Amino acid sequence: MHVIAIANQKGGVGKTTIAMQLGAALSRRHRVLVVDVDRQRSTVWWAENMRDTLPFDFAGDQNPRVLGRLRELQVEYDYILVDTPGSLEDTPVLETVLDAADTVVVPLIPEPLAVEPTMRTISRLIEPRGLRHAVLLNRIDARNPSQLRTWQDLLDTVWGVPRFDAYLRQYKAQADAPILGQLVTTVHDNRRTSGAIYDITRVGLEVAAQAAPALTGRW
Ligand SMILES: Nc1ncnc2c1ncn2[C@@H]1O[C@H](COP(=O)(O)OP(=O)(O)O)[C@@H](O)[C@H]1O
Ligand SMILES: [Mg+2]
């Protein structure tokens, strides 16, 4: 069982999107539980819109303390993904989640104002716990090829933080998914959706490769 926290104290970087879509991608081959400890309940609303098509088990509205007891669950999961709040007032909630996590996915969007809160989350909350972590670039502009390279370079050389090779581009299908009650595993693969499906599938493969014991240590 591998507990993955999706965390960044900056709001709007894609934590909820990634918790749900990565949960869907991993559920193709693994047993997955998605847990929401955010008072905003975004995943709860999204999950409700899915009706009975949700491809993973889901626990909304959770007190983060339940995470410490996840290993006692009757049902065994391969991955437990935890969507976390992005506000500073909720720092204690995030800390409780991180105490129970094995690794952390840190979403980041290519906006200068998102950088400082992201680096602060890593240096103050993630690194002191010795947690494996990697930044996942999100909302990359597919029509601007230099944007991805610039941000990957900044992460590698200026800020010196680990990152995923995979990244998520900005797609309307991704933004519409919660209201349409869709996930990458429940939509038809067509011109509107194929980019979003491809991107999150790559992230899922990278997460699974890193989590496999034989391959650990690279994050
Ligand atoms: N790759 C993407 N393409 C398009 N829209 C996205 C993408 N990722 C996130 N969004 C949108 O950006 C907004 C913030 O994302 P969200 O997952 O709610 O962030 P957080 O949980 O970190 O606050 C939402 O409206 C969401 O639909
Ligand atoms: Mg959210």
Features:
6 strands; 40% helix; alpha/beta; 6-stranded parallel beta sheet; binds magnesium ion; 14% strand; disordered C terminus; 219 residues; single chain; binds adenosine-5'-diphosphate; Rossmann fold
Structure in words:
This protein has seven helices and six strands, in the order E-H-E-H-E-E-H-E-H-E-H-H-H. It is of the alpha/beta class. The chain has one domain: 3-Layer(aba) Sandwich (Rossmann fold). A six-stranded parallel β-sheet has the order 3-2-4-1-5-6, with helices on both faces. Strand 5 (103-108), helix 4 (112-126) and strand 6 form a beta-alpha-beta unit. The protein is globular, with a radius of gyration of 16 Å. The model is unreliable at 214-219 (pLDDT under 50). The protein binds adenosine-5'-diphosphate and magnesium ion. Magnesium ion is lined by residues 15-16, 38, 40, 42. Residues 15-16, 38, 40, 42 line the site of magnesium ion.
Summarize this structure briefly.
By secondary structure, this protein is an alpha/beta fold. 40% of the residues lie in helices and 14% in strands. It has helices at 15-27, 42-49, 91-100, 112-126, 145-158, 172-180, 194-211; strands spanning 2-6, 32-36, 57-59, 79-83, 103-108, 132-137.
Mean of residue pLDDT?
Answer: 93
Bound molecules: adenosine-5'-diphosphate, magnesium ion
What would CATH call the architecture?
A: 3-Layer(aba) Sandwich
Q: What shape does the CA trace take?
A: globular
